[in-house]
Design brief:
- This protein is α/β, with parallel strands linked by helices and 99 residues long.
- It has one domain (2-98): Transcription Regulator spoIIAA.
- The chain is built from 3 helices and 5 strands; from the N terminus they run E-E-H-E-H-E-H-E.
- The chain has helices at residues 25-33, 54-69, 81-90, and strands at residues 2-8, 11-20, 41-52, 73-77, 97-98.
- A hairpin with a 2-residue loop joins strand 1 and strand 2.
- The protein is globular.
């Protein structure tokens, strides 16, 4: 998995490519942790992400909760159909801001 991170004041965008799985989710968690204190808005772009495992979803949930505690927000954009089905089935589509 590769990450392309863009920081703009208190907003961060992360574009993922490849698979977000058990092996790669720590990389995403570390990237977010490095900036979480100074951001209020996180946009996660899944346009080039082929797969998201439960480990990846855990990182997303943890990040969402952290941002929510500090009155921040998180959006998931360009979600693939398979990932969207998982989010719909688990009710997480209502938790995350999906675009």
């Amino acid at each position: 998995m590769e990450l392309r991170t863009t920081l703009n004041d208190t907003e961060m965008t992360i574009a993922l490519s490849g698979e977000l799985n058990t092996l790669t989710s720590p990389k995403l968690a570390a990237e977010i942790a490095a900036h979480i204190e100074r951001i209020n808005s996180l946009i996660m772009d899944f346009k080039e992400c082929d797969y998201v495992s439960s480990a990846g979803i855990r990182v997303l949930l943890s990040t969402f909760k952290t941002l929510k505690k500090k009155q921040g927000n998180m959006q998931l954009i360009n979600i693939g159909e398979n990932f969207k089905e998982v989010l719909d089935a688990t009710g997480l589509d209502a938790v995350f801001g999906l675009i």
